[in-house]
Structures are given as C-alpha cells and as structure tokens.
Amino acid sequence: MTDLEMNWVLSTPALLGVAAGAIALLLVLIMKFKVHAFLSLIIVSLLTAVGTGIPTARLMATLLDGFGGTLASVALLVGLGAMLGRMLETSGGAKVLTDALITRFGEKRAPLALAVASLMLGFPIFFDAGLVVMLPIIFAVARRLGGSFLGYALPSAIAFSVMHIFVPPHPGPVAATGLLGADVGLVLIFGLIVALPTWYFVGYLFGRYVGRKYDIPVPSILSGSTGNFAEFESTPKVGTVLTLLLLPIGLIFLNTGLNMAASADLVSLDSTWVQILRTLGETPVALLITVLLGMILLGWKKRKSANLVEAVVDSALGPVSSVILITGAGGMFGGVLRASGIGNAIAESLDAVGLPVIIAGFVIAAVVRIAQGSATVALTTSAALLQPVVMGNASFNPVELAAIVLALAAGSVFAGHVNDSGFWLVSRFFGMDTKTTLKTWTVGQALVGVIGFAIALAIYIVAGLF
Questions:
Q1: Closest residue by Cα to residue 373 from 39, 5, 44, 7
Q2: Cβ contacts of 258-265, under 8 Å, gap ≥ 24
Q3: pTM for the model
Q4: What pLDDT, in 10s, does the model give residues 224-254?
C-alpha cells in the first residue's frame, strides 16, 4: 500500500482544514507559548498525521521518512559547510576576502558584490549548499561594515533561491522541462531572463528595505564559543580563499554539466570516467574534498598541529546541530502533509477549474507549495497534472512551453513558510525568530513567485504573437 493510497481518507476540504489548523497551531506554539521550534514541529507533525487519517501502523514510518529524508540532503551539507566556514573564519580567510571585496567594490556596493557572487555561484550549486558556503563571507562583510545583517544576507539568499528555482541544471526546472516536453536550452535562457530581474526587485530592492526596517545583529553561529583558536590564524592569501570557495562550485558544476551533456547524448552515463567525475561532483563529496583541502592549506601546511586542526573543525558542529535538527523537523512536517495526499487533492481540484494553462499551472504550483512546503514537489506535481493538456496541444511553440515551465517554477517557490525546511534553515542561520522570518523570507519568496510569474506570463504572451 503506497502513502497516497493509504491517505485518501478525508475529502479535499477536510484535508485543507487539517493543514490550515496544523500551521496555525504550530505558529501559536512557537510564537505565543515559546515552545522550541524543534519540539513544536514534532508535536504538530504527530497530530497532523493522526488528523489526516494516516494508519497507526504507518505513523512513525511517515514521520521518520520526512525527518530522515530531509536530514539526508541537509545534514551533510550543513555540517561540512560549517566546518569549511569555521576554518575560513578562524584562519582569517574570511577577513582577507572581505577586505579584498571592499577594496575593489567599495563599502556601499559590498552587499551588491556579495549578491552578484551568489548569483554566479547559484548557477551550478543548490540553494542550501551555496548559502552555507557563502555565509562566512557574508558574516565577515556584515561585521566589518555594520548595520543590519539582513541587508547583506537576504540579497544573497534570494540570489541562490531564484537561480535554484528558475534555471537548469537545477532539478525542479529540469524535471518540469522533461514532463512538459520543453527545450532545456530555451528554459535556461528564459530562466535567466526571469531570474535576474526577479532578483533585482526582490533580492536587491526588497532586501535593502528589510535591511533598513529590521535590525538583525550578525549571528555567531559559525563563530563558535568553545576554545580559543587564535593559534589557527594565519592570514591566508586571497587566492587560497577563492580556491576553497570555488572548488566545490567547480566540482558540482562538473556533475551537473555531465548530466546535461548526457541528456543531449554527448556522453554516456554508463562510462566509467563519467561515473567517477559525477561522483566527485556530488555536493556532499565536493564539500568533503574541499574541507580536507582546507585542513591542508589552512592547517597542516601552516604548521598547525593535528590536534588544533581537529579542534577547529569539531567546534563548527555544535552551533549548527540546532539548525540541522530543526530543519529535519520541518521536513517531517512537510513529509506528513505530502503523505496525507493534500497536495494531489488540491492540485486535481484546481485542475478542473478551467483556467488558462499558464495561469492554472501557477495557481496549482503555488497552492501545493503553500500546502505541503516542498518547491520541487509543487513543481513536479503541477507539471505532471498539466502534462496531458500541454503535450496534447501542438499549438504551443517552444518559447511558450518554456514560459509555462517558468510559470510553474514561480508558483512552486511562492511564500515558503513553516512547513518548508528551507524556511527553518534561513531562520536559524540568520538568527531570526519565526515572526521576523515570516515578514522577511516568506514575503520575499511570495514576491519572487509573483514577479517571476509576471515575467513568464509576459514572455508567453509575446511568444504567442509570433
């Protein structure tokens, strides 16, 4: 019996009511009664599983699947990224790169420089991995120049977000492209046309606004509080720091590039050399290689003792353990909502309304995203539902197909909130409480969805004229 088969017990309105009640209860527990987010998410996940009719025999398995599935993708990235960030900060590498950035771009343009770097890094690297790699640099710039941390961090976070959701070779747009028979090259080109203006309006302009409105101090999560590691400082060269930042990006890009080459029949995924290079480019492996290289370049090569190097990397794990657990619990909550069948129930109901394809796709993706949290699930669900309509209509030209894919992508990122593990990743790494994260990150993601859809719709309309 599959998850979907076992959970189609309640009607769509009932499922929607349970989901809305669960989200409201979660917010009340965290914001009013100050119950720790980790405990609140577990409590609400358990109650939601019971309320949506998940059988007792499958209850714990459903909870643990959501928790473990999220940890499988997040824990290694956060842990290895935190180790790299700790070494860069403790060695003085983050300060060295910060000084170089400020010298080259000036203090006023430093946040813009960070965001542009994030846009470039966001092309091959996933949102969470890219953010973790960039955080020590963002922290260092914010400490150096002062002001609200949000003014520096939000533009970079939005940069990674728009690249992740709109631009191949990221998995969401690639999956939707395949399901709808669109051309991946056109989705890539028009994805950039959608992503860059969307980032400017949301990441840059909205980021500056919230930076002025909310005075968030620079978090100390990567600084650690255990031990004095002044002996580890060595003031590495800018080239060394850039090597450690760009190496995982290059390796990950190698992986995604080979995947795209294989889809174009340029290489075979069965080739041994391709399999080896793809393995090296898997995000956890790429970060592991980089951490080991960082231990060599920043530690052992600088004649630091093995005990000191081990103590520095170990000190990174304590502060991020809370981030990892809360993010996993957020994944548990989202997993329960997905297993309840609410996403498919709502999507199929909306599919029957009869809106124009591109508008229906956006609405379906947005509602499924709000209901169950995962952008990738929202994107693939809406693409699968529209597939018969799109594939059965030969009148769509290639640009219109690409615009439909991007409209679905815009809907799938809309208003990420407490049932999205990424929400908790941003909340904890940025040192924001739940209420402030809703006012900044959730609103920002809603704006990304609306502006991205508006641009995709404009592309669709113009393409239909020719």
A1: 44
A2: 259/169, 260/168, 260/169, 260/184, 263/184
A3: 0.78
A4: 444 467 788 888 998 998 898 889 878 887 8
